[in-house]
Amino acid sequence: MIARYTRREMGRIWSEPNRFQQWLEVEKAAAAVQGEMGIIPAEAAAAIVERAACEPARIAEIEAEVKHDLIAFTTNVAEHVGEAARFFHYGLTSNDTIDTAQALQLTQASELLRAGLARLGQVLRRRALEFARTPQVGRTHGIHAEPVSFGLTFANWFAENARNQRRFEAAAEDLRVGKISGAVGTFAHLPPEVEARICARLGLKPAPISTQVLQRDRHAAFLCTLAVIGSTLDKIALEIRHLQRTEVREAEEFFSEKQKGSSAMPHKRNPVACEQICGLARLLRSNAQAALENVALWHERDISHSSVERVILPDSCILADYLLAKTADVVEKLLVYPEQMLRDLALTHGLVYSGQLLLDLVESGVSREQAYRWVQRHAMETWRSGGDFRARIEADPEIRAQVAPETIAAAFDIERHLRHAEAIIARALAAS
Predict the structure, then answer these.
(1) Which of 39, 101, 181, 272 lies 20 to 30 angstroms, CA to CA, from 211?
(2) φ and ψ at 205, to 5 degrees?
């Protein structure tokens, strides 16, 4: 299923040819460094760097016999290198190559994910400013609460995306490490200086300590970060789905001219992109669970993590890349209906101003307990019987005797609720 959603460049990074190419990059860097240091003959190192090549089909053919992908790879490369091949993979163990090359793939993937996060942030910033003064009803527990600005919703998402960017940078940097420490991490065959120089040549940092493998807490943190990013995208899509409900219809996904929503009901305009985002985010979270299970390995290494990573690393990177692009597209093209927002604000006949009215009554000298009783009594009657909440308040003789008409009118002024919206948005955007 995942292959259907592969974006071209991210798919290329996780393709078999690129995986073998990164193995080659590690092996050539190892040969070059060892040649410079006199560990292997300089002419052999030069031959390896110049001639080393591989073919995925030939590797598969050899692997079918030897049942070991790295040995199949080295055998195929040796067919190209010739006599100097006896110094190819010299002093290395399989995971010196595999884990270090995987770090190169993850670094490449991180560049695309970084760009996806940045694009989403730009779209959210633009729409936050666009709707900074657009009134909307705020909802808590799904129930109308107090007026808000729709721009605050985008600004909130922007701030969360910015936090995700910082989390991602830390997780990606933790994975920008290689290891050439040997079969159990003791540098029994090559000194630590070799590792440091190979990693530097590849643009990686040497892991301060490793066993035969890089420790999988690094990978778990990376995939957990992608899961958090997915949950943010899930959150954005879920809010849009709620706003697109027929009874609400304050915003909806873009619907193209020839698009169809249902095979049976021609009127349907369904939030299909958002539903897809919510669904696929679940896969990111489940992959993170698998990554957490990979942290515990037997002693210096087993391979229980290896088969899992062949699925969860490419799938999670491809999914996150796709979901970031999909969400940015949805937000960028989102259809927004401010007039419907105003209509929904009026559905409860002024009840959304009860909190401000309560405070204004207290400020006028009424005890909080008495003010709450007055306001709640008329609010509950409005819920039960309809009518206008403000009219009920203005007609109450006890309230009229205590509070000036201008004070009551001011409690129902929506501008009081929105007066800080632009400042809040500016603060959220500046903080990031």
Answers:
(1) 39
(2) -105, 145
